[in-house]
Amino acid sequence: MIVMIGATGMIGGVLLKRLVNQSIPVRALSRNPEKLRIQIGDLDQSLIEITLADAAEPESLRRAFTGANQLFLVMSNSPRQVELETSIIRIAAEVGIEHIVKVSSPAFNQNAPVAVARWHHEIEKTLAESSITHTVLRPYAFMQNLLRFAPTIVTQDVFYGSMGNTACNFIDCRDIADVAAEVLTNSKVAGKVYTLTGSEVYSYPQIASKLSVLLGRPIRYINMDPQVLRRNLIEHEHMPPWLADHVLEIQAMSVILPERPTDTVKQLLGREPCKLDDFLCENIENFQ
Questions:
Q1: Are 93 and 130 contacting, i.e. CB atoms less than 8 angstroms apart?
Q2: Which of 4, 68, 188, 260 has the most CB atoms at less than 10 Å from its CB?
Q3: What domains does the chain contain, in order, with CATH numbers?
């Protein structure tokens, strides 16, 4: 039995579908089981055991983990991440989980400190110190997060950042989910650390050019001073300050540490990862 934390998210929701389509039973945890039932729609619910559990309530996790042998762990970033995920790992070890697949972040680097990466680094240390076989997935920027730019592209034909012409790795969340399904169902590739990217790197100006062609109107990328961007994220996108800081930190890290694609997705899945061009075409109505 595979138990899942994060079944309602961009990665977990796709992974749940992949596992059910392979006729693999899954126990999906949620603080709102009814919402999850609605979200999974027409999936074969005979293979899905929806269980009420809260990462902040250890006893609910102990009950939910009992009888399972694998755990998929992905949580939205938050200031409580280290506290919650290390607790989850320790409880999993107590109840006999044999394999954990954790979605982490690109490796923390002292030359470009990113708070969220530091949190994941601490959680990975807890995993390494546990007796549990573990697989760590370290994806770079999600293509799906580009949809965050849609409102200003629709209304102003612009989007904002602070990376200049720096090229970045992007990966489709569906590719991350497919890799997770592979490592959960193929013991030969479990127990390792995988850095996940798409097959190409792109700068924000290049993405603006691609959107201009697809939309038939000029789209501009405007590079902003980091502190101006931070204020804009908080005031106009209503981000909490810690999340705005995270956006600035990862953009600064991209500038300091050049990003290069890996071939990990192809090696694990036997196919190329999703291309950014295809993702933008698929989602172009969001920018119109």
A1: yes
A2: 4
A3: 2-139 (3.40.50.720), 142-170+198-259+274-288 (3.90.25.10)
Q: Which of 189, 180, 182 is nearest to 139 (CA)?
A: 180
Please write the tens of the pLDDT for every residue from 106-137: 876 666 678 888 889 999 999 999 889 999 99
Q: What is the pLDDT of residues 253-264, one digit of tens each?
A: 888 888 899 999
Separation between Cα atoms, residue 12 and residue 255, nearest integer Å:
30
With tokens 């999850």, the residue in question is: 36
Tokens of 270: 């036997």
Query: For the residues of 76-102, what is the DSSP string, one character each?
Result: ---TTHHHHHHHHHHHHHHHT--EEEE
Amino acid present at 27: R
**Which string of DSSP letters, residue by residue, matches 167-215?**
-EEEE-HHHHHHHHHHHHH-GGG-SSEEEE--S-EE-HHHHHHHHHHHH
Q: At what angle do helices 58-65 and 81-95 cross, to 10 degrees?
A: 40
